[in-house]
Amino acid sequence: MPESILVLTHADETGSSLARSSLEVVTAGKELAARLNAPLMIGILAVDPISAARSLAIADARVLGVSGDAFMQAHYATDAAACEALCRSAGATIVLAPQTSRMARVAAGVAHRLGGSIDTHITSIKGDEGIEASRWFYRQRIEAVAIRSTRPWLLLLECGAYPAFESEAADVIVEHVAVELPAIRTAVTGTCAPAHGAQTIRPDAKMLFVAGAGWTKKQPDGQTHAAEAGDLILGFLQKTGASLGSSKSLVDQGGDGQPVLPFLTHMNQVGQTGSTPRHPKGLATCCHGEEPHVVGWRFIPERRAISLDPNCGWARGKADVVYIADAFKVMAKVNELLSAKP
Ligand SMILES: Cc1cc2nc3c(=O)[nH]c(=O)nc-3n(C[C@H](O)[C@H](O)[C@H](O)COP(=O)(O)OP(=O)(O)OC[C@H]3O[C@@H](n4cnc5c(N)ncnc54)[C@H](O)[C@@H]3O)c2cc1C
User: Fold this and answer.
1) Quick check: 268 and 236 in contact, CB under 8 A?
2) Residues 6 or more apart from 93 whose CB is under 8 A from it?
């Protein structure tokens, strides 16, 4: 059966431009369509899909859209109805969508309504002839490749796995798809978010800065310097916009009654029992680089580390560059140079 591909996208918080994760899936859709010589369609879920579609000017795809204020906020009932309508209208055999919380919430339900199958957390779609979708299990240690004959087959792609599609902005014809909206029982009355700058986990940051337990350990003067460590780390984050990760030892210390960095939680923990973030670069500081930690760095291609220990895991082939140095001194100098930058 010849394949046809629908890329399901949604707008960002403006309601009128596509989220970056959606543009990444457009790239994946284009690659797959070219390889299979299959028609490509792009479905847009947005308040204003005509504005959102302007970033798809050279996508060379049929564009379908649902529109209206109902799609400003993510509601299961309205989003699922919209995705179902877009899928039915496109009639595609393969549906690609971003693994965002908005899509992840409704995609399985939509697959069920369509009588199809779904696989999530996909990181690549390959295959010489057919479609082989890969994802990782067991904290990114086992890679599985899925092949399915059920159609439609919905695949949610992990954010950061493909480059975002880029195009000059221009008008694109958007075919309007009507959606029969179900009754909405909930209303969004506002959002509560941490104060600007207080959020240290920044998935879109270009750099991951990892703090290890060394920051709160006794230093050569026999004293701990947790307050100074906190200032250096927060100063660096504020100047660079980097995302803050931590080793398990450091975030566990609160429970052990040792000095803590108050802005760190277990949400910052990177590794086997923590997260596996995606950033182009990473800098580990005061961290030993043990395997259960470094396994969380699988998707960090460029790695540097600052450690006093010339025998640490980073020095044993886990980082590209290791500075055997005192991170207090190095980061103080780095912050000074960043402050001097115009
Ligand atoms: C089942 C299991 C799951 C685990 N999961 C995770 C996980 O998800 N994530 C994780 O991180 N760990 C995990 N661990 C723990 C992991 O094995 C390590 O114990 C932990 O990563 C060590 O943290 P650390 O390197 O910060 O601390 P340490 O091992 O204490 O290392 C501190 C480092 O700081 C250096 N240092 C001290 N002062 C300075 C200074 N001034 N300048 C520069 N360097 C300095 C020291 O030389 C040392 O190398 C797991 C362990 C197990 C058994």
Assistant:
1) no
2) 1, 2, 3, 4, 5, 151, 152, 153
**Strands ordered across the beta sheet of 321-324:** 243-246, 207-211, 281-285, 302-307, 321-324
- Which range has highest mean pLDDT (57-61, 196-200, 274-278, 324-328)? 324-328
Asked if residue 279 has its Cβ within 6 Å of ligand 1, the reply is no
Number of C-beta neighbours around residue 187 at 10 A: 7
Short-list 273, 287, 211, CA closest to 242? 211
Cα separation, 141 vs 254, in Å, equals 29
Reduced to 3 DSSP states, what percent helix, strand and coil does the chain have, rounded to the nearest 5?
35, 25, 45
Determine the distance separating the centroid of ligand 1 and the alpha carbon of 307, expressed in angstroms.
11
State the residue for tokens 């693994």: 99
* Displacement of CA 191 from its chain's centroid (Å): 21
CA of 248 to the centre of ligand 1 (A): 7
Q: Is 219 in the pocket of ligand 1 (CB under 6 A)?
A: yes
Mean pLDDT, residues 174-184: 94
* Cβ neighbours around 38 below 10 Å, total: 17
Token pair of 84 as six digits: 């179902």
Q: CA-to-CA distance for 209 and 286, rounded, in angstroms?
A: 11
pLDDT of residue 259: 75
Residue pair 294/322 in contact (Cβ under 8 Å)? The answer is no
Alpha carbon of 254 to ligand 1 centroid (Å): 15
pTM summary value: 0.74
- Alpha helices (H) in 97-225, listed in sequence order: 101-114
Token duo for residue 6 = 């629908």
